[in-house]
Structure formats: structure tokens, C-alpha cells
Amino acid sequence: MEIFKASVQYNDLKGSCAADRADNSDATEWLKNNDHIQEYEFLVGISLFAGENHGEHRDPVSVTFLITDETGFRALGQNSSEYEIRKVNVDMEITAFLALFKRFEITLSTNSCLEGKEY
């Protein structure tokens, strides 16, 4: 079992991320349109990995969508461990991934030294 937390090989920089769903075609809609999610399922998490960039980004990026059913969705809301997660792994262009969001921000600092601090 994996833990839902960002981590890379050295973790030189750590931070946080926040996003607003796109108004017209968010990640759930994309999953429905591409036959990856059913009507009774819920998208509860997304992981993006871009790796081994050596001075130049090369698409695709690896995206994992974490999906559960209604029972799992309720369990997560009640902080219960009685849920099952289904993973959908896809490769996407970074621009296609970012298009799933209205706004998207990532903050990173050395050893997360600035996390939650004024600057």
C-alpha cells in the first residue's frame, strides 16, 4: 500500500499544491469522456510525476487518478480506513493535464523551509 504524499528521489525541494477544478471539463469529466470512471464512482486524488528531465522537459507526464465508490467516498469523509482505491494510470502532455484545472499553483522551498511562512 502506498501513502498519498509527494516524494521524489532526493526531495531537495518540498512544498504544497492547490488547484481549482476547470469549469467546463475538469478531471472527472475527462475520466468520464475517456471511459475511465463510472457514474457511481468519485475521483478522490490525483498524482502527477515528471521525471528524468535533464534541462529540457519531454512529454508525456505520468498521471495517476485515484477513484473510489460511494461507500469509499463516505468512509474517507468520516476518516475511516474502510475504503478501496482504484488507480487509473495515464500518460498525458503537461498542457492537457493543466487544462483540467482553472487555476493551479505549486510552491516549493528548500527542505520546505518556507512552507506556511510570510515572505
Whole-number mean pLDDT? 95
Distance N to C terminus: 37 Å
Taking the sheet with the most strands, its summary is:
3 strands, antiparallel
Supply the CATH class: Alpha Beta
Question: Residue share in helices?
Answer: 10-25%
Query: Got a strand count?
Result: 5
**Helical segment count:** 3
Share of β-strand residues: 35-45%
CATH architecture: Roll
Helix-strand makeup class: alpha+beta
Order of helices and strands: EHEEHEHE
Question: Ranges with pLDDT <50 over ≥5 residues?
Answer: none
From the 3D structure, determine the CATH topology. Nuclear Transport Factor 2, Chain: A
Count of domains: 1
Tell the overall outline. Answer: globular
Task: Work out the radius of gyration.
Answer: 16 Å
As laid out across the biggest beta sheet, the strand order is 2-3-4
